[in-house]
Predict the 3D structure of the following.
Amino acid sequence: MLDVWSVSRLAHTLQDLIRSDPSLEDLWVEGEVSNLRQGTRGHLYFTLKDLQAQVRCVMFGGIWQAQDLENGHHVLAHGRIDYYPTRGDLQFYVDFVRSAGVGIFRAQFERVLAKLEGEGLFDESRKRPLPPFPKKIGVATSPVGAVFQDICNVIGRRWPLAEVVLASTPVQGPEAVPGLIWAIHRLNEEGVDLIIIARGGGSWEELTAFNDESVARAVFSSRVPVIAGVGHQPDLTIVDLVADRRAPTPSAAAELAVPDISVIKGQLRSYGLRLEAAAQSYLTTYRKELRGCVARLDAYTPKIDHLKGRLTGLAHRIGLAAQREIKALAREVEAISARLKALDPKAVLRRGYALVYLRRGPVVTSVSQVEPGAQIEVQLADGLFPAQVLRQYGF
Amino acid sequence: MASEKPSFEDMYRRLEEIAARLEAGGLGLEEALALYEEGMRLARLCHEILDAAQLRINRLRDELSVYVDEQFPYVSEEGEE
């Protein structure tokens, strides 16, 4: 059965066909520029041709670079092919043009550079600081060759506290781009503190993976800082520009990644000395203060001595008073004993007095106690003798 | 993460802090001497950690080719494995 297509159906089928081929979305075309003109809204229209064919091109206003776009110039143009049904035009939508003389690698590099720069991927403001003491260091590189060993040697010498995690990936060839993207992603998952993305020296062509837009975006979106250590060559790669830090070699990248153990040991020693000095100065300060306190205490000591003196004085005076009292008492005792002596009847007898007793009776103190003829005894100081009363007289 | 053992970095930072606090002055003697002792102990521990350290190397065993097959089906034609 015959099938009649509408124009729209045809147009949309063509459009679908073209859009179904991913290689037409991102391609480079080399040709000569002709019919270059500027449209009303700043768009540039031109034709790319070679000896057998031509394709219509449009470059929208405000795109990145059109410096080499001139009639008759041989250029490399990058963009996508699309079919525009309303006009029935098959067009090459160009986003980047460069003189064909620079070569495709250079042109591609410049295109990605301009694009990512325009998006701010290289801005200094988004560069992250490196952790000062990384514990886990991810390395995205090839396990083949000296690069990984060099990195391990440097880290082992400078900062053996670290753990190095290798995500093996080819660094050139068709698997390099997906491999590097995988490695960055995988190392992020692994919880590393930073990533070194490295490869040894190589020609410009061998470094294409490091100029790849998707690798650059993977570096950009890494959660942890990335250090690029791509072998010595005069020009920087896109990965160098998007990385948080870049080094000229893998070994130099490893040096950036970790502190130097001898420097840190020196710092530990200096901290030790500083602590000693600080503690010493505290001791000095407090000793001085202590001496101050002692001096102030000393200021009170004379008062104590004074009190002591007074105390001794009092004791002395108490002693003297006691002695005086004792002497007075002694004198009193003497006086009393003198008076007692004076009362001694024998002392009276020695002065010539006599005591008269009735015979074996009491002392005669009155004449009325005796009668004439009564026997009496007379006592003198040195003895006694019996006597007889002759008579008595009263006074 | 601040569980069990403090990391080298934790101890080093604490040591820095202690040195700065001691040097700033104005502490009581007892506090100053306690900080001094803590600082000296940290410095010794840090030295011991550095002296005993040995680099560890860990190679991820994941199959890159599996990932490549999933994410970039058009790339891996002749894998290296």
Observations:
- Chain A has three domains: 7-119, 134-259, 348-388.
